[in-house]
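Good morning,

Attaching, inline, the backbone tokens for the sequence recovery test we're adding to the shared suite. The designed sequence is right after.
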């Protein structure tokens, strides 16, 4: 049984796919930074780790937009793998939020202060506000999905789209 061809409106060039992927990654990164700066949300250590793949994905998407087709296809495949890494980090974060496992990052634990004088305890306090990674933050009021869960869904979709274009799409 032969595969049905896609409608021409769904066939993207590598250049277009790279630009769309770069834009999607930039929007995800921009929302994360804006929610912190203007929305007052405090990111935990895992949240900060989840941002890195999007920055790399922007670069790879822009590279796919300017490279020749074979190299652009490779850039899209690398973009898919990069965002998959971010999805895995988001999956770990979701597991930490649901208390399925402890965070692999020591920065995720809320600071515990015991022993010593008040001055010694104050000296051991972190400079910035710390947010435990197992305390979910909800971005949209009324939507029972934490930011980590939303990121997992978004990263999974971006991984699937970029991977599908890189693997399945023949030609330029």
């Amino acid at each position: 049984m032969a595969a049905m061809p896609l409608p021409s409106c769904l066939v993207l060039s590598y250049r277009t796919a790279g630009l769309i992927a770069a834009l999607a990654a930039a929007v995800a990164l921009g929302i994360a930074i804006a929610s912190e700066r203007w929305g007052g949300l405090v990111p935990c250590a895992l949240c900060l780790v989840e941002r890195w793949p999007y920055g790399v994905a922007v670069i790879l998407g822009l590279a796919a937009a300017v490279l020749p087709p074979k190299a652009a296809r490779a850039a899209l495949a690398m973009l898919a793998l990069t965002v998959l890494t971010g999805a895995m980090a988001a999956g770990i974060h979701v597991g930490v939020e649901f208390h399925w496992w402890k965070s692999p990052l020591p920065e995720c634990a809320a600071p515990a202060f015991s022993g010593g004088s008040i001055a010694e305890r104050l000296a051991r306090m972190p400079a910035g506000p710390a947010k435990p990674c197992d305390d979910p933050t909800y971005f949209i009021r009324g939507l029972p999905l934490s930011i980590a869960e939303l990121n997992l869904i978004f990263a999974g979709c971006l991984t699937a789209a970029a991977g599908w274009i890189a693997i399945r799409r023949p030609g330029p």
